[in-house]
Amino acid sequence: xxxxxxxxxxxxxxxxxxxxxxxxxxxxxxxxxxxxxxxxxxxxxxxxxxxxxxxxxxxxxxxxxxxxxxxxxxxxxxxxxxxxxxxxxxxxxxxxxxxxxxxxxxxxxxxxxxxxxxxxxxxxxxxxxxxxxxxxxxxxxxxxxxxxxxxxxxxxxxxxxxxxxxxxxxxxxxxxxxxxxxxxxxxxxxxxxxxxxxxxxxxxxxxxxxxxxxxxxxxxxxxxxxxxxxxxxxxxxxxxxxxxxxxxxxx
Length: 251
Fold this sequence. Notes:
catalytic activity; globular; 3-stranded mixed sheet; 2-enoyl-CoA Hydratase, Chain A, domain 1; Enoyl-CoA_hydra/iso; alpha/beta; Enoyl-CoA_hydra_C; single chain; 251 residues
């Protein structure tokens, strides 16, 4: 994308497919492990992508044949990363090839859409050293596959193959390894065509404001007037009346 920032380190890279930022963990020799240096690089890259005005969605993938084997400890950096994924302004599509374990599993589950392969393995084992799983996966996993199934998976350290993950909603789509990125970008482009301001509010509402019916109604009551007076709302109405595709600006 012209004018958009690109970056590459030994650990994380940022590239663009139109309005879609492709963030890649590039530490394949360490199976994309999430040590403190890698987490810092990932956090800064995700911030850079999400704060780019022209960005409409993010694809997160692991380079090589492993998504990520996770890290050695939970810390503030980890929490900031998962907050960007779960309540950040941009929808995030995970490309999960090979193993997603520990915090790597949490990264995938925190994303809005997951593309995997038949050979992908999602590992629900406890964190290193017998700690709690990182990234609040005990919260995000239940919202993705249901509380009962998540409870059993985490308490028993269950592994899911790609096919099993698709069947229970842990993965949204399966693809051949050679088509993974293209499928993920296609999913991200569907998000990119939606009004970004409304998507941002919707992500935040689903993550933080819909635990009860009263909370959901209160959130909707507070947010709808803000969206009704937005430029994106006016553009949506104009595009409908003029029978053309809308050009949303995120304001």
